[in-house]
Design a protein that fits this description.
71% of the residues lie in helices and 0% in strands. It is built from 6 helices and no strands.
């Protein structure tokens, strides 16, 4: 005659062996909340240090991925700036300038996630100055580059 192991004993044995709550739940098929209740009733606690280490590792991995993404955005920004320099008409210039602005803004926002907030005002100021310089040099956006009604001068 075979006996079915007591689920409560299984939970306690796995918990005492150092398995985390979710791992115990997966192995026994018992919901995590029930695993927590069974362990608490028996005075068994789950060691959260492994969870903290895993969480910190994920934070470091995410930061590394954002750094790689930010570097890629800078490469794209270089390409967009080249398109800006190579623009032959107002429409091409407008769209290249929009790409430069969007990529620079995306880079600043992405880097700001992991960096100190001190440089944010300076970065925003730099982007605003770039925008104003482009508007000052090239005037308003070309009429062919936007949708909507235009006046007799081709301005919205």
């Amino acid at each position: 005659m075979t006996t079915t192991p007591d689920p409560r004993a299984q939970v306690l044995n796995l918990a005492r062996a150092g398995h985390g709550r979710n791992e115990v739940a997966r192995r026994t098929g018992i919901p995590p909340t029930t695993v927590t209740r069974i362990a608490a009733e028996a005075g068994v606690t789950f060691d959260r240090s492994a969870t903290a280490v895993a969480t910190q590792a994920r934070v470091v991995d995410a930061k590394a991925r954002r750094s790689i993404l930010a570097a890629g955005i800078l490469d794209d920004l270089d390409d967009a700036r080249q398109h800006l320099r190579d623009a032959t008409d107002a429409k091409d210039l407008f769209f290249a300038a929009k790409a430069v602005d969007a990529l620079a803004s995306a880079h600043v926002r992405l880097v700001a996630v992991d960096g100190p907030q001190d440089g944010m005002d300076e970065a925003k100021s730099m982007l605003g100055a770039l925008h104003e310089a482009l508007i000052g040099k090239w005037g308003e956006q070309p009429a062919t580059a936007h949708q909507g009604d235009a006046d007799e001068d081709g301005r919205p």
